[in-house]
Design goal:
Elements: E1 6-9, E2 12-15, H1 26-30, E3 33-41, E4 44-45, H2 48-61, H3 70-82, E5 89-96, E6 113-120, H4 126-131, E7 133-139, H5 154-166, E8 170-175, E9 178-182, E10 186-191, E11 194-197, H6 208-220, E12 224-226, H7 231-235, E13 239-244, E14 248-255, E15 258-259, H8 267-281
Parallel strand pairs: 7-8, 7-14, 11-12
Antiparallel strand pairs: 1-2, 1-6, 3-4, 3-5, 5-6, 8-9, 10-11, 10-13, 13-14, 14-15
Bound molecules: pyridoxal-5'-phosphate.
Pyridoxal-5'-phosphate (PLP) binds next to helix 6 and strand 13.
């Protein structure tokens, strides 16, 4: 992204170098806002309706009224994509409670700040898809509303840094011994031919890619079971996958330096990966 890249801010498309917000913006001061990241393939947004629904849920959870209807959001996403020169993009949208004198309570009559930018979508390399990736684990010390796609990401940032420093691709999180998600992805376990996923409660983000994979599973012939999953079960998995808009679906071959299954991306992963690719291009 360079300074001439076009971004959207509060009603206008403009070069990045000209886009300015107040230092009193509550996003900056309190992390008081929510966001979405929508992957775009062949210049077409993937699962936009699901992202807009999650945005609606995040806004409702923080009691910020949605500044636009679904049709208006769609038009804005399409225009952002049109103004950006990549076939594969990640469109980032952030909405904050606006700029106001610093006070924790909600300000009255303040317009939200709406910001959008598009960057090239970074998906896993062919090597990562073929050979899989390594992860480390950590205790999930984030707050109890991880279902809100909040811009307050300090917990996720610190937890992600643990894997950066370990040379791993992600930090898989456990709360009281049970799997929640990863620092910026969801996690799926495959055991005895069944796809296991953690309950989508307040402790994880309901990933659009996770839900795509759960929806595709019957088509690929894999049964799904949603239930709490312990650390021991994760280590004993036949396969372990990460899902996110950028990672799509990606096989994990070691966790905390211990091999998962036979230490290679599994047969179920290969089937799901191929199906997912087809869907992104459908
Ligand atoms: C904490 C967390 N969980 C899960 C996900 C995956 O969500 P999605 O599949 O909608 O990209 C993300 C995405 O960034 C995330 O930050």
């Amino acid at each position: 992204m360079n300074q001439d890249s076009v971004v959207y801010l509060n009603g206008a498309f403009q070069p990045l170098s000209e886009a300015k917000i107040s230092v009193l913006d509550r996003g900056f001061i309190f992390g008081d806002g929510v966001y979405e990241v929508v992957p775009v393939y062949n210049r077409r947004p993937f699962r936009l309706a699901q992202h807009l629904k999650r945005l609606e849920n995040s806004l409702a959870a923080i009691r910020l009224s949605n500044p636009k209807g679904a049709a208006e959001w769609e038009a804005l996403f399409l225009e952002m994509i049109r103004q950006t020169p990549h076939e594969k993009q990640a469109v980032y949208l952030q909405i904050t409670r606006g700029a106001a004198p610093r006070d924790h309570g909600f300000p009255q009559g303040v317009a939200p700040t709406v910001f959008m930018m598009a960057v090239p979508l970074k998906t896993p390399t062919p090597e990562q898809v073929e050979h899989g990736v390594s992860c480390v684990s950590a205790e999930d010390f984030r707050w109890h509303r991880c279902d809100i796609k909040s811009i307050s990401l300090l917990g996720n940032v610190l937890l992600r840094q643990t894997s950066v420093e370990a040379g791993a691709i992600e930090t898989v999180l456990f709360r009281g011994g049970f799997l929640t998600e990863a620092s910026a992805s969801n996690v799926i376990v495959v055991k005895n031919g069944v796809l296991l996923a953690s309950p989508q409660d307040h402790l994880i983000l309901p990933g659009v890619s996770l839900n795509a994979v759960l929806e595709f599973a019957p088509m690929v012939g894999i049964p799904v079971e949603v239930r709490p999953i312990s650390y021991a079960e994760v280590l004993d998995a036949d396969e372990l996958w990460l899902t996110s808009s950028g990672k799509e679906v990606l096989a994990v071959i070691t966790l905390d330096d211990k091999p998962i299954g036979d230490g290679k991306p599994g047969a179920m992963f290969k089937k799901m990966w191929a199906y997912y690719q087809e869907q992104t291009l459908a």
